[in-house]
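Quick one: co-fold with zinc ion.
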Amino acid sequence: MTSRTYGPWADACGVPVTTAARVEQIGVHKPHGALAGRRGKTGVVTDLGSSRVNVLFDGEDIPVGVRPHLLQVLAQQEAEGMTCLEGLHWHGYLHRAEGGLYELPEPTLLDRKIRLAEVPHTVLRSPSQVAKWVGTTSDQDECFVLWLPAPGLWRTYADQAEWRTEAVKLAARAGAVYTAVSSADGSARCELYAEAVSADDCPEHGVHHEQDA
Ligand SMILES: [Zn+2]
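Sure, here it is.
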C-alpha cells in the first residue's frame, strides 16, 4: 500500500522534508537539536544542512538545526496520509491496569476482535494523530514499550522520542499501534491500542470518515 522510502531527508513518517515546508517538532532528542521545550511547536524549513534541516520556529528569530526524523511535515503529510492510507482510520482504546510492563500479554487477533466490538475512546484519522494520541498520556511516564509485529515482541524504549517515532512509522505503514507506558516504580500501566480499521471492520466507517472534513 505504501512505497515510501526512509531517506535522510524524510520526517518521522517517511515524508520528504523540503525547503519552505511547514513542520512540527514531534520528537525530543537534545543531541539532535530537538529540545523538550519545542515539542509540538511548528515552524518553517529555511534550508537543508549537511545532516540537519534548519527550522525557523514560529515566534523565534534564529533557525535551529534539527534532525529530520524528529520532525513531521504538516499539511503535506496529512495530504499524503489521505492518499496512501485511503480508506483507513484508527480506533483508539485506552486501558489502565495494575502491574508493570513486563506482565503485558502477547496481543492476539481475538483481543482485536473484542476491542473492535467496543466503542472506541477516540477515532484517529492519520498516523500523526495516532502519534499525538499515544504521546498525550506519557508525559509523566518513564518506561515505554511498543509491540513490534514483525519479530513479535514488546520492545522497551528508554528514549521517549524514539518510541514515538517508531509508533508513527507503524501507523504510516497502515498498521496497528499497540503501546504501553508506566511510571518508574512499575506499579501501574496504561495500555494504548490504536487499531487500524477499514470499511470491513467498522460499520460506522462513513461516519468516522465524515468527521475528517
Ligand atoms: Zn471507525
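If it helps, The CA atoms of residues 74 and 163 lie 20 Å apart.
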